[in-house]
Amino acid sequence: MRTFYIFKINREMTILTKDVPYNLFRMIENLYYLDSIQSSMSMQVFQDIFTILDKEYLDKRINNLFKSNRYYHYQDGNHYIVNKYKPENTLLKVYKTHIILKTDCLNPTLLVNYLMSDNLFVCDFKNKDYFWLNEFVR
Within 13 Å and on the Cβ side, how many CA atoms surround 136? Predict the structure, then answer.
């Protein structure tokens, strides 16, 4: 199972890093591995890179989009796709700062069919994988 962290990158940082996503990944990875003492110092860096997400809006929108999908269910702020025929087991959780997507398939339904934006950057820190979502979906 892979865990993807999805971040909404602010407009200025998107322009600066669009052609060199490795640099953006390294910045985000450094923030990810900071300990709790250093994390308070990283707040300014966080504000320079990311845009805050509207959690309630995204949860409602995802739920409305997928509620007719027989493999989808929403419970306690978690979006699930469990499809034994694809096969796919995907969990998506929206936070104000990022989205976490845990999946066991290559093209998760919740990622490919919904989360399309020019400013969404996806990171898998464990596997050192990263990409702009709009480049993946094309």
Answer: 23
Instruction: List, in order, residues 6 or more apart from 118 with CB less than 8 Å away.
Output: 14, 132, 134
Strand ordering across the sheet containing 99-103: 72-75, 78-83, 88-94, 99-103, 2-8, 120-124, 129-132
**pLDDT tens per residue, range 36-95:** 556 666 677 788 899 999 999 999 989 998 999 999 999 999 999 999 888 999 999 999
Q: Are 28 and 132 in contact (CB under 8 A)?
A: no
Cβ atoms 136, 4 nearer than 8 A: no
- Cα–Cα distance, 120 to 50 (Å, whole number): 10
- For the chain, domains (ranges, CATH) are 2-137 (3.30.310.250)
d(CA 8, CA 22): 16
| Encoded tokens for 63 | 């739920």
Confirm if 16 and 119 have CB atoms less than 8 A apart: no
Q: Where are the alpha helices (DSSP H) in 1-138?
A: 11-17, 21-32, 36-39, 43-49, 55-66, 109-112, 133-137
- H or E element that contains 93: strand 88-94
